[in-house]
Design brief:
Elements: H1 2-16, H2 26-35, H3 37-69
Helix pairs in contact: 2-3
Length: 70
């Protein structure tokens, strides 16, 4: 139960605390500058989404593996 509470608090902090993260390479930055501000933000969020999805899946699998070993 304690682990669920900690996970919930971490997830809430992740979604509540604003983070201005730039996840663009030099080519994507140049393309985003040509598109304008709103499309550039959408492109940046897409890059972050595509990068976080596999990390979340691997983290979940690793957590389940670690939990089954202990």
């Amino acid at each position: 139960m304690r682990g669920c509470v900690i996970l919930f608090v971490l997830l809430m902090l992740f979604f509540v605390v604003p983070a201005d993260v730039s996840a663009q390479c030099s080519i994507c930055t140049k393309t985003a500058q040509q598109l304008g501000e709103k499309p550039a933000k959408a492109l940046n969020m897409g890059i972050i989404y595509l990068g976080l999805t596999p990390l979340i899946v691997m983290g979940y699998i690793g957590y389940r593996w670690w939990k089954s070993e202990h």
